[in-house]
Structures are given as C-alpha cells and as structure tokens.
Design brief:
Layout (H helix, E strand, L loop, with lengths): L1 E5 L2 E5 L11 E2 L5 E10 L14 E5 L2 E3 L3 E5 L31 E7 L7 H15 L6 E7 L5 E5 L2 H9 L17 H13 L5 E8 L11 H11 L2 E7 L34 H9 L4 E3 L3 H7 L6 E6 L9 E8 L6 E4 L2 E3 L6
Parallel strand pairs: 8-9, 8-11, 11-12, 12-13
Antiparallel strand pairs: 1-2, 3-4, 4-14, 4-16, 5-6, 5-15, 7-14, 9-10, 15-17
Length: about 350
C-alpha cells in the first residue's frame, strides 16, 4: 500500500483504490453504452453549439453505429467572460466571497511541476495563471494542486489565497507523491481529482498544465481509464502544453494509438515529455488542448467554458479486451473541425 497526500485528504493508491472503470456506462439492463464527447469548431476555431443528433455520424472500426443517446453540455449563452485581465475583473467579487453565492463552475488547476524544468517558463506560467485567477467570477471556485503534491489548495474564490498558492509554485520540486511502479503519477492524480469533483453541483473542469508525460507500454489501459472516469463524472480536462509548442490541434491529433489491441505510441521512451497524451485527455473528455509560448493567451483560451456534445452508442463488438477505433463525422458541408476521442477500450466483463 502506498499513500499520497492530495487535495487536503489522504488518498490511498493501490490496486482498486482508484476504481478502474469499465468502458462506458452500464444501464440496469446490463447494456453498455460508450459515451463520446465531441467538440465542433468552425474555421476560426469558434465552438459550434447548434447541431443536433442527425448532424453526426459515428463509426467504430470503420462501421457506422447508431447514436442511441445524444446530449449537449452547454455552460449557457450568458456565461460571463472570464478572460478579463486582472485590472478589469468585476469589482463585485470580494477576496473571500460572501458565502451566499451559488457556485457556477469548479476549476482545478493541476500544475505538472515535476516536469517544469526552466525557471523562466515557471515565472511566465505563474504570472499568467495569476492574471487569469484575478478574473474569477462570483460563481467560480478554483483549486490548485501539483504533481509533486507539495502544493495543495482546495476550492475557493478567495483570490488572496489563490495568489499566495501560486507564488509558492516551484520548478522541479522534491516530489512527495508516490505511486506504484505500475502506475503513471499524473494519471493517478487526475483520477483522484476527477473522483473528488464528481459530485460537485456545477460545471467541472480541470486545467492540466504540463509538457506531457510518458505512459509505459505495460500500462495500456491507464489513459483510457482516466478518460472514461472523467466522462462519467462529467469533468472536462483542458490541457495547456508548455513544451515545444508543436501543433497537435488538428482533427487527427489524437490518432497516435495503434490500430491493434494496444496503446503503442510513436514517440516511445526517447520522449518522456510527450504532448500527444495531453491531446488525448482533452479531446477525449470534451476539453480543449492549447499550445504556444504565450501562456497568457493559453489561459485566456480556457478561461470561459465551452459547449460540447456527448454521443452514446451500444457497441456491437464483444468485450474482447481490445481497443477499437472511433471516428465522428459531420453531415455538414461547412468547413468544421471535429475533436473527439479516437478509440475506446472494450474491457472484458468480470464475474
């Protein structure tokens, strides 16, 4: 048994401590429904939120599937602009809140500080995050955690506490977190945060700030399990890539997985900071992946929650313990881009 101090409570990481979810949701009839969050953008990158079920086509392994469930996760057309610079933040937001405001959005900022190696980058990341947190709206609650577990602040709208926590963010700090050798630290922390957020009564988002991380071939379902857990908890994972600003934002960005039954990656062991895992996590959960050296721009892009669709289907394939390709297409002549998960894992049923 290994323990990790996280989120202000003690989370036990051992086999089964963070539940390994079966792929998709299972109804009382025993029918498994695979859920596929989808973000649709126009050629300017703006979210398209007025589509219906009949606009989508869903394929697994090249075969069209019937879309049995359809919903729109819409934060509301009147959502306030959260990208305001610090000096223009609404004056109605007091430092500690009034205690009577109803939360409208919970945002977890998870800084992968064990992979922030450059002090100059750290300072720019810290300053950009501080400016964004200065624009919190009255209904926002933010939490700050790190992959080293040296920094932990639970949900609050107290700007002074949030700014103080950010000021203590370090590059390459000594890591307190420990997980089993068969687990990936960042994914275990993400699953713990998702579990913590699963019952919160409002919009739930995680902003992961990282250069990416390596997932060993011997852990083929670990990423898929994290995505499934987030989908079922209605938590979107946004990702800010602080690495080399490579453009992985295209529709095929998350297609790095092998076509067989594994999760082979083209980047291999030689690249321990791989951004494709960030694309997978974002596109797989209805979140947004952003990259670039201007961290102010990156945080602003993720500041206001966006709409996404959730398609559901009952897989015809057996629960064979293999990965199956997913493809979402639009029955639309406009130049639109689809961001969605590229596969699902058909976990074998256990008696």
């Amino acid at each position: 048994m290994r323990t990790v101090i996280l989120l202000g409570v003690t989370v036990i990481f051992l086999s089964g401590a963070v539940a390994q979810p079966q792929s998709g949701g299972t109804f009382k009839t025993g029918v498994t429904v695979i859920q596929v969050p989808v973000v649709v953008r126009d050629h300017d990158g703006h979210v398209v939120s007025n589509l219906g079920k009949d606009d989508f086509q869903l394929f697994t392994d090249g075969k069209r599937q019937e879309i049995t469930t359809f919903s729109v996760e819409n934060p509301g057309q009147a959502a306030p602009d959260r990208s305001l610079p610090d000096g223009k933040a609404p004056a109605a937001q007091p430092a500690g809140g009034t205690g009577t405001e109803i939360p409208a959005r919970f945002i977890t900022y998870l800084f992968d500080d064990v992979n922030i190696r450059d002090f100059g980058d750290l300072k720019r990341i810290r300053d950009a995050a501080a400016r964004q947190l200065g624009a919190l709206q009255p209904g926002d609650r933010a939490a700050i955690f790190t992959s080293s577990c040296t920094l932990s602040l639970d949900f609050t709208n107290d700007r002074a506490k949030l700014q103080d926590a950010l000021s203590r963010l370090q590059s390459r700090p000594p890591s307190i977190c420990r997980v089993a050798q068969t687990q990936t630290l960042q994914l275990e922390l993400l699953k713990a945060v998702v579990k913590k957020m699963s019952n919160l009564p409002a919009r739930r988002d995680i902003i992961l700030v990282s250069s990416g991380f390596y997932i060993a071939p011997l852990r083929p379902t670990e990423e898929s399990d994290t995505i499934e857990a987030a989908i079922r908890a209605k938590v979107s994972i946004d990702a800010i890539d602080i690495g080399e600003a490579t453009d992985y934002t295209g529709g095929a960005a998350a297609s790095a997985s092998s076509s067989g039954g594994g999760m082979a990656r083209p980047y291999g062991n030689a690249n321990p900071a791989n951004p494709i895992v960030l694309v997978d996590l974002a596109h797989g959960t209805g979140g947004t992946y952003v990259t670039g050296n201007d961290f102010d721009v990156s945080f602003r892009k993720l500041s206001t929650p966006e709409s996404h669709y959730v398609l559901g289907f009952v897989p015809a394939a057996k629960a064979d313990g293999r990965f199956h390709k997913l493809k979402v297409k639009l029955d639309d002549s406009r130049r639109l881009t689809v961001e969605a998960r590229s596969q699902y894992y058909a976990a074998p049923h256990t008696e």
